[in-house]
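Listing S7. Sequence submitted for prediction.
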Amino acid sequence: MLFSILTLLIACMVCVVLLSILASTGLNLRAITLAVGAAILPTLVYGAVLVRIDRTEPESWDLRGLAFLWGAVVAVFIALILNTTALTIFHIKFDDDLGEILTAIVAAPLIEESAKGLLVLLVLWLTRRHLDGLLDGMLLGATVGLGFAMTENIMYFGLAYHSGGAADVGSLFVIRCLVNGLGHAVWTSFTGAAIGWSRGRHGRGILRFLVLPVGWGLAVLGHATWNAGASLAIGFLTIGFSYNWLLSDWQALIIAGVVGGLPFTIPPILIAFIVARLGLEQEEYVVRTYLPIEVGLGTLTPAEAATLASRAARNQQERTIRRLKGETAARNQIAFNIAATRLAFFHYHALRGERPDRADVRRAEQLRWQIATLRWYSIHPE
């Protein structure tokens, strides 16, 4: 019964989101094609960047797909319902213009960042083994944000096509996909990073709870700052460039988007970059500190553990094997390294006070068998 209800609920969400997309494009085939293409292309590029970062201990494609679909469907559905409700309330309380401003600056950041961040929190509660630390939470949140941005961009591009044709879609593409293409991903990554960090502090004081609203607050603040400051700056600059430089509307909007938008997008991206570096350093620390336990158990040799402890040495090893032995051998070595890294995190959580359950212990044994099997194949490739 629960599965049936959940399936029906998801189907309803998908239908509502699809109808909203079709309504924004006016059922115009050219508008649909242009909007979908313009939204998917940058999503693929930014998604490849996230996959590149998440190489040391990557999450399963099932979880990545779930996170992306949560952002593209579930979070968008929640935002559509609650944003519309908030707009209606603000219209009743205030005039229409002020209601739209309050919805964009206050309601939308609170609602959308909560809806997106909820998935990372659910992963922590329901299947915490997929969330080992700061970087895992950050990248999971960023994936949710990418899905949300893609669906939202399709709607905005569809509306832009009806208001000004392909020229308006192009100018909006520059602002939403180039200048602020990582906006939703970066904002939600703050929430995810806070949740991932708290995962590593199981049973260790109240700070693990206090950091969650801090990360969520940074996400809301970044979102609200863009909606307020960037929109205002781009609007004023567009008017100024149109009158002073005698540019067309779409030309003025592109220049204003770059000049007025970048000051609001660069700082959050820099913060996210620093957090990602800290996450990578945490992973190196965990492997360097806890993987020697598996050396003592005989799972790994000291040389293998030493290679795994350095990201540069690991990357060089994988490149060398790919060049000398081929792609299959390189994929086996990558799987070997990932399994060893997961064993390091198993000991990391266990020795920091989180008692492993029977499934965790069984999974660790499976990782040891996987390492032994991959080593055998590297010695006997045929």
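Caption to Listing S7: primary sequence and predicted structure tokens for the chain studied. The chain is about 85% helix and 0% strand. Residues 134-179 form the longest helix (46 residues).
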